[in-house]
């Protein structure tokens, strides 16, 4: 009988992760802008004049 394998903390998960849902209004607020820091670099998520989302660095 074999024991079930448990993934290590460094191993990527093979199970799909459930993602949450958040509205763009909650993220961007009245300003329509969110600054995201990723690996030491800043990105801007904002709403365009055509009411689309754009992510820029």
Could you explain how this protein is built, in words?
Strands 1-2-3 form a three-stranded antiparallel beta sheet, with no helix packed on it. By secondary structure, it is mostly beta strands. The longest helix has 5 residues. It is built from one helix and three strands, in the order H-E-E-E. It has a domain of 31 residues: Complement Module, domain 1 (Ribbon). The model has no long low-confidence stretch (mean pLDDT 83).
Index terms:
3 strands; 1 helix; mainly beta; 57 residues
Quick overview:
This protein is mostly beta strands and 57 residues long. It has one helix and three strands, in the order H-E-E-E.
Task: Return the CATH topology of the domain at 26-56.
Answer: Complement Module, domain 1
- What is the architecture of the domain at 26-56 at the second tier of CATH? Ribbon
Q: Can you give the helix content as a percent range?
A: under 10%
Number of strands: 3
As residue ranges, the low-confidence spans are none
Overall geometry: extended
Chain-wise SSE layout:
Elements: H1 24-28, E1 33-38, E2 41-47, E3 53-56
Antiparallel strand pairs: 1-2, 2-3
């Amino acid at each position: 009988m074999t024991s079930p394998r448990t993934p290590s903390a460094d191993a990527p998960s093979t199970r799909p992760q459930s993602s949450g849902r958040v509205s763009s209004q909650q993220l961007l607020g009245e300003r329509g802008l969110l600054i995201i820091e990723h690996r030491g670099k800043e990105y801007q998520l904002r709403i365009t004049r055509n009411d689309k989302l754009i992510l820029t660095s």
